[in-house]
Amino acid sequence: MTYQECVGYLFNSTPVFEHVGASAYKAGLENTLALDEHFGHPHRAYRTIHVAGTNGKGSCSHTLASILQQAGYRVGLYTSPHLVDFRERIRVNGKPISKQRVIDFVESERHFFEPLHPSFFELTTALAFLYFKEQKVDIAVIEVGLGGRLDCTNIIRPELSIITNISFDHTQFLGNTLAKIAGEKAGIIKPHTPVVIGETCAETRPVFEAKAKAESAPVTFAEDQPEVISSVPCHDAKCGRNYITHDFGSFHGELGGDYQTKNTNTILCALRELNDPHITLDSIHKGFSTVSETTGLTGRWQIINQRPLVICDTGHNVGGWQYLAAQIKSIPCKQLRMVFGMVDDKDISSVMMLLPKDAKYYWAQATSRRAIPASQVKNLGYQHQLQGDDYGSVANAFRQAMADASEDDFIFVGGSSYIVADFLSINHF
Prior knowledge:
The protein folds into two domains: 3-295, Mur-like, catalytic domain (UDP-N-acetylmuramoyl-L-alanine:D-glutamate ligase), CATH 3.40.1190; 302-425, Alpha-Beta Complex (Protein-Tyrosine Phosphatase, Chain A), CATH 3.90.190. It is of the alpha/beta class. The strands form three sheets. It has an eight-stranded mixed sheet with strand order 4-3-2-5-1-6-7-8, with helices on both faces. The protein has helices at residues 3-13, 17-20, 30-38, 57-70, 99-113, 120-134, 171-174, 178-185, 205-214, 260-274, 281-289, 291-295, 318-330, 348-352, 374-383, 394-404, 417-425, and strands spanning 47-52, 75-78, 90-92, 95-96, 139-143, 160-163, 195-197, 219-221, 228-233, 241-245, 250-253, 302-305, 309-313, 336-340, 360-363, 388-390, 410-414. Helix 4 (57-70) crosses helix 10.
């Protein structure tokens, strides 16, 4: 079995949420517990940090992993979804799992897991936990896949839990109110285990307080302890943002989105809670400034080209676009051009209400089976006074945007992780 055949097997023989949506979601931990038992509970062999939230959990997970690496730890990092290669999901010190290890896992274990009919994510999680044990990691940063309470990552017993924020996403699984969604994400709060909450609102804060009290878990609300004094975007070759903080000095953060300010405050509060003597100011500063290089993070306000300016971002829900729309509008340019598409379980109408009306739109459809057809996105855009044409694929849309653009234009690519994935898969320049 080649690597491509192996990945094809994983995607085609197991229910994959990224491809088919609701039918791949399994509300329960039975398969996860069976896989965990089979592999000898590998996650008990190393320390863990658990990260949940509607937005920002990927950036927080990668940044924490970067800081821990700079502190000298051997670090496992488990995130989802991947953008280009399946192996992006499972990394040790920034290096993706080898193709051969993925092949060996499937070939040697399929006799066990096939009768279970696990989901793609259940199987991937089992592989990640086993691989981290094999690689003798000191600590692993584990990002929740969906929700928290019934997510298959929730079998770990972390030394710290982090919930970044709550907004409307995956409402068909997690609930149609912020309180219900918070209840699902609060499911990662463990007995006597510290938890850091990044952002709350009137509906969600009581949910977290009640769950933390029930579990006797010390809770820190990062918004009550603002570490970040100032956060200023860089306009030089470094890009990213410059921070001044109360207790962690001044440093450069490589990730440039406006939303990273709140992520940074959450991370700093988490580091204070960890209180690890190996994590120094130097390792924190280096970790923030080298996230992409250290961990392989892509797609977060990622600058691809300067003239014309080309930026992509994976923001895909209302909470994310409340930040993205404002930041996009703040960028001076001759003409704003937007390569845009979404998938069918997102509130596209609410997102479109936030989009700039003076942009030229290049409507696109990602290769995911959940992608909304570009023709439908165009019609919805027209209803919101957004002008543009249907270009079918992301590649076609982007190539046309580049052909139309002058050096002083700004091309933004996003609306969905899958739009960005298709974009990063093409040979841009």
